[in-house]
Amino acid sequence: MSVIIRQAGPEDMDAICNMINGLSVYRESPPEAMPDVDEIRTFLFSADTAAEAYICEIEGDIAGYAVISLGYSTWPGRYSLNVEDLYSTPDYRGRGAGKAMLQYIAQLAVSRRCNRIEWNVLEWDKSAKDFYRSIDALPLSEWVRYRLDGPALERFASQEAL
């Protein structure tokens, strides 16, 4: 089986948007949650972006995509890779596309001297959690992730500090 992982380019926008839509359906997100195509293009492919997008092709067919970005942790004094999206199309789930992409991301992390890769998993996504455990990834139990978004973010940002 021929598997190719390559950096995505603007010419991949239709495929990426279709997969983002597929991810939205998988996550049971409302259709209006889908971001604007031009915003996605800007965030993934502008000159000053911190994001990197990758495409997985199996036998010439697009089988999935991943979006990553670098983060920095002062505690180990090293960069880490954050995986924002890791998506396999339904036809390629369980056939190695996700594992190939995550292994490629691991190789990027090692080559960039990152000390870790981190990502989020929905609580109900048993198949994803089983897959991650199968590669020795561990859920973080000592950290609780928080989110400030939407109106709460706007409200907090507009408040006067002290």
From TrEMBL:
Database matches in Pfam families: Acetyltransf_1 (PF00583)
Domain (N-acetyltransferase) ranges: 3-160
InterPro entries, A to Z: Acyl_CoA_acyltransferase, Diverse_Substrate_AcTransf, GNAT_dom
Record's keyword terms, sorted: Acyltransferase, Transferase
Lineage: superkingdom: Bacteria
Membrane-crossing residue ranges in chain numbering: none
CDD domains given in the database record: NAT_SF
SUPFAM superfamilies found in the cross-reference section: Acyl-CoA N-acyltransferases (Nat)
Span of the signal peptide: none
Record-given protein name: N-acetyltransferase family protein
Provenance organism: Erwinia plantamica
